[in-house]
Amino acid sequence: MQDRYGDGITMDLLIRPCRSVLYIPASNPRALEKARRLDADAIIFDLEDAVAPDQKETARTRLRELFDSTDFGPRFRIVRINALDTPWGHADARAFADTGVDALLLPKVDGAAAVDELAAIVPALPLWAMMETPLGILNASEVAAHGRVAGFVMGTNDLAKDLGARSDPMRMPLMTALQSCLLAARAHGVIAIDGVYNAFRDNEGLRRECRQGRDMGFDGKTLIHPAQIAIANEVFAPDESEIDHARRQIAAFEEAEREGRGVAVLDGRIVENLHVEAARRLLARAAAILKMKGGAK
Ligand code: COA
Ligand code: MG
User: What is the pLDDT of residue 294?
Assistant: First the structure.
């Protein structure tokens, strides 16, 4: 994987937990008030689709005030602004350019030019891109390669609408798009977060879709309701048996090395350097999650 910032910072970004990424409409004061007590690894404060046009300005002002007055602890704070070709996009970007948010999320990114436009308004913050238009998916590689882009969020509802795709529990109609974005994200060292699961009271369906996204390689899932947080946190965290297996892989490999062999065998399977690298990464992720729990209390 490309280390785009030097000094291994890409690894840090990928290891920083982003299992549960909750959208909170910036127009909903009750929901906003809950933000600092929720166990979500990241929050997307939404000024875009969850906010009605006549509430856009009030929501922006309220959100700015909230950032000035609230400590959100270790949670990753992301603001989803309106697209720059809407009446609100430029003012949104300017309003949050100098706040301590962790990233700005730009919707409906069609290509690197859209990122250039935002980067010119916001010189310092990392930028995340909503991957949710057919053109954006086709241009995923140039978006991920953009020097200011640090994260991808899959906008599966918009994408399904534009594709004319029907709802399918296994998401086959979206698979090419999901995998194209994941490939682009991994090729350029960018965080990749899966789309939302709309049926927010269907826990089993959510668990199935979280597992599917995790198995594909996504770092976490975007969520629409606090009741979805615990499931995403659980599914995207390494479990005890994975942690144990990673430790045993490392131990087996180190023993093989001491004996002058480059390959170990554990439980009837080979363990090579690449497996050890993945095992160390898994342990680092587990440690980062533990640290996050400590900080959130
Ligand atoms: N973040 C924080 N708190 C939330 C929340 C969210 N995304 N969604 C709901 N809550 C809060 C509610 O404010 C409510 O709090 P209260 O008990 O103090 O009134 C509590 O959780 C229970 O909510 P509930 O009654 O179960 O749901 P609802 O009917 O009020 O809301 C949705 C359901 C789907 C409308 C709401 O969850 C929502 O707006 N989600 C975000 C949608 C969004 O951001 N879409 C854009 C990206 S796809
Ligand atoms: Mg969208």
Answer: 66
